[in-house]
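To fix ideas, we now present one chain and its tokenised fold:
***
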Amino acid sequence: MASQQDGDDTLDELLKDGARIEELPDEDEDNNSATEMNGPPFPGKHLQPKRKHDVPPWMNSATLGLFHEDSQTPSTEALAKTAAECLPFLTLEDTQGLPLNSHGLPHLRRKPHADFLRGCLGDLPAPYAAMDASRPWLFYWCIAGQSFLDEDVSEYKDRLIETVRPLQNPGGGFGGGHGQYSHCACTYATVLALTAVDGLEVVDRKAMWHWLGTVKQADGGFRMAIGAEEDIRGAYCAMTVITLLNLPLELPPDSPARKAGLQSFTDSLGNWIGRCQSYEGGIAGAPNNEVHGAYAFCALACLSILDAPHVSIPAFLDVALLTRWLASMQTTPEGGFAGRPNKLVDACYSHWVGACFTLIEAALPTPADKYTTAKEGMWNKAALVRYLLTCGQQPGKKGGMRDKPSTRPDGYHTCYSLSGLSAAQHHHHYDTQGSTRDDGGSGRLLAAFNWRAERGTAEEMKALNVDEEDVVELVHPVFVLRFEAVEAARKRFEGGGL
């Protein structure tokens, strides 16, 4: 057996004749000293990706260097594939033949997008039969989306009323298709579409009030339909319909929730929403479920209907924790948003997550004006705008906006991409002095009507790298409609009553 001394002698020989660890010189010393060593200096400049020209700071070399091919899980492989798919468009190496604005980004294709949405309201191919239970959503996405592009949607009023009339059930509410049960999501979409064209006279408000009473639950939440799941979507959809139609807040006498002692649609609702927030900070569809970006919007918007956001949101949610979670949903290097941690960027979350920041800012004690510039705030507005214009637009003649470059455009992603674009381009202000309830008249909740908006300045649009024709219209942060349509609904049912 070799002795310890023999081992030490061998180590000495290796260190004497072989490679040894040496301290590298500082960069300001003689540059030739580094090249005298064998191979490139650590960490190896040959391994560091070169900085691409004319890319924004959130896409710098250090960030791009995080994306490589040695992924080890299906999730990381999908994330890397999506990043690689988007990078040529984000860096403008491939502009897909789209016309460019004065800043080098693709223009917002207003007319092709409007034409695409208009076409989705016509005859559809056979595969759309699978959407039969979601017909009201097509009406809303396509009509509201056109209005966000400043298209006149009043032409759809008569046609829409006659289309949705058979979807209204005698017991109240709207189904997705002919003969289908009433559902909160379909009712919400129908009411919003009708609001967009000022056609709410077709709604049977008294029957609607009774039907919503059947889905109000003893714990404060709402089911999506009679006997269906209870989740945060039901709460937001129901309270939106109640507020726009100015239905009585008092529960109908036959509401099952009355057996638990509840008197109003708002009873225990805030507490139930608070139970949907998880330890991560995000909002789940129901208590103890997985968090999701769209549920965060539903929670924030519903609380902003119940009361002023700076009152209701901090009362029931951990705002700091939720803000951190929402900010973490903005993806790098794409700049768009994902709906859940470690998921892919998706243009629809431009609204579902991006629009949350307007409501969060109104809930903060610090004035929201602090967060109104393109370079400051809790989220990167310029990054979202860049993603939507470079990766979200369908090239060619067809128009429409898509989830990501590998997918096809549809009404859903077009509508919510435009809504998210509006949230990034404009300012929303909440009037903290406005009344939150019509105590002297109908008892209507007024908090959601206290919002006003103003267009971003020319300087701010320049910071976002957009021209005037790339700017969409002002979108209400709670109801996701044009402000003019919301105001018309407020006036129509100002007196209340059934």
About this structure: The chain is about 40% helix and 0% strand. The chain has one domain: 74-123+130-492. The radius of gyration is 27 Å.
